[in-house]
Amino acid sequence: MLESLGTSFVKLGQHLSLRSDLFPPEYLAELQKLQDRVKPFPPDEAIAAIEHAFGKPPSQLFVRFDAEPFAAASVAQVHTARTFEGDEVVVKVLRPGVAIQVDRDMRILAAVVRSLSYFSAVLTRYRAEAVVREVWLNLRRELDLREEARNMHRFASEFRPSESIVVPDVVDDLSSETVMVQTRLHGRRLDEANLTQSGPGLAQALIDAYVRMFFLMGFFHGDPHPGNLLVTADGRLGLHDFGVVGSLDRQTRHSLASFMLAFTEQDTEWVLDSWLALGMISRGGDRDRMRAVVGALMSDYSRRPISEWSIGEAFAQLVTASRGSNFAVPLHLLVLGRTLILIEATVRLLDPSFSLLDSLAERSRQVMESALGEGQQTRRLQYEAAIAGTEWQRLLAASLRRLRVDGLRLKMDHEGLPELSQQIVTGANRVALALVTLGLYLAASLLMQFRSGPQLFDFPALPAIFYAAAAWFTVKLVRDISRRP
Hints:
The protein is an alpha+beta fold and 485 residues long. The chain has 19 helices and 12 strands. It has helices spanning 2-5, 7-16, 25-31, 43-54, 58-61, 98-117, 121-125, 128-142, 145-159, 199-217, 250-264, 268-278, 287-302, 311-321, 334-350, 356-372, 379-406, 417-450, 461-483, and strands spanning 64-65, 71-72, 76-82, 88-94, 165-166, 170-175, 179-183, 187-189, 219-221, 229-232, 237-239, 245-247. A hairpin with a 4-residue loop joins strand 10 (229-232) and strand 11 (237-239). It is globular.
């Protein structure tokens, strides 16, 4: 059904296929079929798009252009070609009219979800409209191939010296909003290659690449499913399709490393602190309940071999067990969570015994230790000392500036007082709205006795308006009360 509805809903289905906190495994397996099984559009439309983008037909741009598409996805399809310089390239062409279709579909979908959220506490709790808008924002970026070209060139420059990772680059002067030309990587798709012997080495190469992206570069390839990875003839791992790229600021990178180290160390308090820093727990949340949830999960994982630890499974268990505890995944971390789940699935394909979490934690620990140097401290002290050692000058400069501009100020927080104040205001607003609603009902009933003024289908218009307004306020009151006690 999603595929028949078009690009917007295919992308939405791809996004939902990674939400193990929302759907059971059989639904996720069906939704994952949307990753790379999409019907191509006619070659004539692709040729017309290329001529419109560059002002020349493919015959004047390439010595050879293959009209039949090499592969097709929900947003674009790719054709192979050869330049006059003799280089093999790939021509990526956006689906005609896809940008207009996506904006129209997502606008309608956001409006429908917003309307349903008025009556559904579940949709409100999961911030359904915000999720739709996040998918919409990512789609808009993906629909501009100039953005993908910039991303690809950036990654190609970063990994050019690498001996285990290869990234194609953009052909100069041949990229536009709707068409992009890149150098071609020759190799076998990861899910089609027989990698019995080389699988473990490729899995480690992928992890090393992502540790570099996460903790050093601050931006990462956001769609590492097997269809976007190739094994080249010389045994390197090739990455392509940079339509989805995530970014991590300095604080998020530090907090992510903290979480991975805390989880492998089975340190419940450190895990909670890491989640707080990542924004996954509000400061006013029920920490005692979350401590029990994390402690139970740690106990379960402590009895397993580390090769059986799963980020996706642990995340789903935590979300399920922590509903109602002010636990939520920040929208800016959705791409990161999606990427981690895809990486896990990919490395398990390469090496079923590979432990993603242990390898990520080990590599991230090496990054932190290289900043601090060897020592005898605990791993948490190493982590905190490394952060302090690299951040103290920036923090001191910011503090001195605030002191110079704002002067010396003391900030006092009263535990629970802001929440109490908000509850009082909310309660007063509800009482006021209830009184207005009651007044409308009474006024409408009194006016009905006189039946004067304009009529609407033999019914007095003014009482009808009052009754309609009172009914709307009643629905709003019931909805607000059911959402927040």
